[in-house]
Design goal:
Two copies of one chain form a homodimer.
Chain A lengths: L11 E7 L3 E8 L4 E8 L6 H18 L6 E7 L3 E2 L4 E2 L13 H9 L3 E4 L1 H12 L8 E6 L3 E7 L2 E2 L31 H4 L1 H14 L17 H9 L3 H25 L3 E5 L7 H14 L9 E4 L4 H13 L11
Parallel strand pairs in A: 1-4, 4-7, 8-11, 11-12
Antiparallel strand pairs in A: 1-2, 2-3, 5-6, 8-9, 9-10
Chain lengths: 333, 333
């Protein structure tokens, strides 16, 4: 992990963040400076090898521009359902290629550089531990609040991958027994309440349940309401919108109190779109955590916001995994 | 961990299990054979050093009888709230000495042997990994069902102690929001439903809620009902008592489905009094787990019963920690 793996002749890593729309790649040094980035459209090629070929072509320009040929220690990849152990995406996700997708094999062969993959939230946790607010921490939990809720669990300085490489799915832990239906097939998952989608759903439920209460959110089509709309309304002083954030923070704070009983972390690190809501979310979240956590945890566990710039975070997180990449590879063809 | 630490001149470990009533100690070899045990009354000495002195006196006889002087690699101690990092019991528990209790310091000084401590459930997990059904597993979760519910989480072959040494309190994870009041101060904790105490409480609630339904349990004073009574009634075919076990198994199975989303273990290992209820508990437990777990876990995670003999398990578990004990110690006085 981290800088211990660096040899001075290979001072760089490459991070690749595979998103549903764009794939962003970046060249990163040992201090976490992003020297340069580029991107390609994830959906452009229905054949995975064609995608890898274009990725290699574009990334090679970046590598050449920075005189980094032969100086890259490893490639780290963040991808939905990326499995660290197998180097593949094993179950079908919202990407144009059929699972299983042999990510690290084809990418490391093409680049002639060792590669490793994990899911986006784990990559974010490794990024936070290597370059961010969790530097020096051995036990922390990363929570990413986006369209869904992701997580990365670090124990004793090591990422928890579990028996199958798929550990750390805290977005799918039950927070309300028999609660909202989740895309994963379970009910009452954290993700159904504390994601951007969950916030919008809570707003719709509150509008329906409190029909006589005025709200700025009544000016729009109820099915079009987004978490951004709820945020804007709350900032404008709307009571109902603020209550949505209070509820969201409470649900998340109580969930973190449960998670604390699991691994007793030094800190939680919160990242992602909703985290930018600031005190609107963090105040009820911290209050609910302190009110609900086990007595031995009260006042002892930090709830921090990520310090990584959001524009760089995905690539940085993925790149940090590049320091760990070490499987033998063939030379690039 | 395990036999790698054994040097041939010191082929034994000593396990000490500090319970509220009795302290049991045993001499154990590398194969997990308990060569001999002894015990003293935990409550006899109000002064902790006096207790250690008696423990040393009694254990010395056992050591001498087995010609084991100078051949003990380490002492492992299982104790309520025992903190692996500090070697102490830091918060007051049901023992006659005032916390913090410097367990490993005084015991290792007295015996002239390195000592390590953890809580009972973690010791059970280490015992299971070293000598039991979890041999060879790198990722599993031990659940101990006794008066309370304890747990030990193993990730990547290593016990999870967390930032403060107190990780793995799965008995205090919320299974029913705003549910039963727990001794820990929280509400709806797993322990309030799936411990022996929880089973008795569920029986009382069912008797109250189903007033018109006959049950063998109505023959006794409702406040005197124990989990053993519920077990006996269920075995005798009592419908209400069987429903109590179905409910208990369901709550535990759904909790394990949540825990699986955390660390993706290869297996859960169930230990303790309630585990002896056999299919009465295990059948609804396994059914609820499979019905509720994430799709990627279905059919993939084993739910096993401990293979350690209950009479030996506490001492064996504690002793396994003795292989890891390595702090520098002074010679015995």
């Amino acid at each position: 992990m981290g800088t211990s793996a660096i040899d001075t002749t290979k001072p760089y890593v490459m991070g690749i963040d595979i998103g549903g729309t764009n794939t962003v790649f970046g060249l990163v040094d040992a201090r976490g400076t992003v020297l340069g980035t580029g991107s390609i459209k994830t959906q452009k090629h229905s054949n995975f090898q064609d995608y890898v070929d274009e990725l290699y072509e574009k990334a090679s320009i970046l590598i050449k521009d920075h005189d980094a040929e032969g100086k890259i220690h490893g490639i780290g990849i963040g991808a939905p359902n990326g499995n660290y152990y197998t180097g593949m995406i094993e179950t079908q996700v919202n990407l144009p290629w059929k699972a299983p997708i042999p990510l690290t094999k084809l990418i490391s062969e093409k680049f002639g550089i060792p590669a490793a993959v994990t899911n986006d939230a784990n990559a974010a946790a490794i990024g936070e531990m290597t370059y961010g607010v969790a530097r020096g921490m051995k036990d922390f939990i990363m929570i990413t609040l986006g369209t869904g809720v992701g997580s990365g669990v670090v124990v004793n300085g090591t990422m928890v991958y579990g028996a199958d490489g798929m550990a750390g799915e805290l977005g799918h832990i039950t927070v309300r027994r028999n609660g909202r239906t989740c895309g994963c097939g379970r009910h009452g998952c954290l993700e159904t309440y504390c994601s951007a989608t969950g916030v919008a759903k809570t707003a719709r439920e509150f509008l329906e349940a409190r029909k006589d209460e005025p709200s700025l959110l009544r000016d729009m089509q109820v099915e079009d309401i987004t978490s951004k709309d709820v945020y804007d309304a709350a900032i404008a002083g709307d009571k109902l919108a603020k209550d949505v954030y209070d509820f969201t923070g409470k649900v998340l704070g109580e969930a973190l109190a449960d998670f604390a009983a699991f691994t007793s972390p030094e800190a939680f690190v919160i990242f992602g779109g909703l985290a930018k809501s600031g005190d609107l979310l963090m105040k009820p979240l911290r209050e609910a955590f302190e009110a609900d956590c086990m007595p031995m945890h009260k006042g002892k566990i930090k709830i921090l916001l990520s310090e990584l710039k959001e524009s760089d975070a995905a690539v940085l997180g993925a790149s940090a995994l590049g320091w760990e990449a070490k499987e033998p590879v063939e030379t690039a063809k």
